[in-house]
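Reproducibility note. Readers wishing to regenerate the assembly model reported in the main text can use the exact inputs given here. Chain order matters: entities are listed in the order in which they were concatenated for prediction.
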Amino acid sequence: EVQLVESGGNLVQPGGSLRLSCAASGFAFSTYWMYWVRQAPGKGLECVANINQDGSAEYYVDSVKGRFTISRDNVKNSLYLQLNSLSDEDTAVYFCARVFRPQFRMDAFDVWGHGTMVTVSS
Amino acid sequence: DIQMTQSPSSVSASVGDRVTITCRASQDINNWLAWYQEKPGKAPKLVIYAASSLQSGVPLRFSGSGSGTDFTLTISSLQPEDFATYYCQQANSFPPTFGPGTKVEI
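Running the prediction on these inputs yields the following structure tokens for the assembly.
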């Protein structure tokens, strides 16, 4: 079964850090661009970062540049997101997602994890 | 960033109704448009990709159309399991951006 499972979400104080993980199974993880997408409570969806197949290229939305770092380990079939200098605006459910067609950097997202909740609060 | 808008923001409908949701991009995105269905507490589910291609396993009552800046998602005969929030998403330029969602409710 094709699956993505996130972990690492937690309650963290403003200015704090957190590392999210996403374990992939059931598909050739190393052949896909991967994304982190977040959804603040009661709000819409926002792509925050993506990474290419071998981890040599990564892109970030302006609101997280310099604070978040996406990475991957193709041996462990895992995707990561390091979150630093967190503010309450980063409170959200964080999903990892797979692009639909592996040859494309951007595409629809056909596989999503269940999400992991990050709450930034003092 | 490309801005995506959707209308209506919510629609009240009954089982068997035909429902149409529109999505507009702030610039030409060719056919790089996807539609998702989201239910509370669940991850979004891909319904349509490339503006009009039905994702595997999605019922034929769902269809998508459009190109350029204007797109539509149509549910031909609403079923109880279709009550959800629907989002459009552009994949033409980074970052991929989503519309604000349309809630389909009874």
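We highlight two features of this model. The longest strand of chain A covers residues 18-25. The CA atoms of residues 39 and 45 of chain A lie 5 Å apart.
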